[in-house]
Amino acid sequence: MQPAPLIRIEGLGKTYLMGEKRLEVLRGIDLEIAAGELVALTGPSGAGKSTFLHLLGALDVPTRGRVLFEGEDVFGRGEDGLAAFRNQTIGFVFQSHHLLPEFTALENAMMPALIRRVARGDARRRAAEMLETVGLGERMEHRPGELSGGEQQRVALARALCLQPKLLLADEPTGNLDPQTAEGIHALLADLNVRMGITAVVVTHNERLAAALPRRLRLVQGRLA
């Protein structure tokens, strides 16, 4: 008997009202993602990729349809439940790393644990271990301004994974990086997927890098093609 998927998406749709006009961004998406899958999501600009990721991570609410995580309707929770889901279950990485410039790499990576009120010593240990994992063991005390673009994105990745979330969502994580550095970040995601069993959905406009990931989906005009 096949195990139940980690994520089941049923008829997912999102429509925005712009004055008297309705903008239908997602048009009924059905999808299953198994635990441990590494999925690339591609598509033209405006296809709804970021909207899809925001719904998957409960940063936005669907107009219709359901997102089931481990069999539970994500949007059946109250506001407190959604906030806990985002903090405890999801790790986010965006195109812009959003690091705090006055803090070191280690302090930035500790933030999710401190927000969850993990003891400071434990938070420091977890963040240090993850920075080692992403290859920044020698750069922990450096501030973002002292790091390259690729190193800053690795800090953002360590921060996202500090609490070992069940799902990593990455929205154009290499969009601001040169091709060689971008390949390094994608290779790191693939390595973490194998070594740690991370489930991840990666939105990217880079078709060549997407093709290197184990599973590839394409979003066109709000539908999976």
From TrEMBL:
Assigned GO CC terms: membrane protein complex; plasma membrane
Residue intervals passing through the bilayer: none
MF (Gene Ontology): ATP binding; ATP hydrolysis activity; transmembrane transporter activity
Keyword line: ATP-binding, Nucleotide-binding, Transport
Protein's name according to its UniProt entry: ABC transporter related
UniProt xrefs under SMART domains: AAA
Signal peptide from the UniProt entry: none
Any one GO biological process: lipoprotein localization to outer membrane
Organism: Anaeromyxobacter dehalogenans (strain ATCC BAA-258 / DSM 21875 / 2CP-1)
Domain of life: Bacteria
Sequence ranges assigned to domain ABC transporter in this UniProt record: 7-225
Family the UniProt entry places it in: Belongs to the ABC transporter superfamily. Macrolide exporter (TC 3.A.1.122) family.
CDD domains in the cross-refs: ABC_MJ0796_LolCDE_FtsE
Pfam families for this protein: ABC_tran
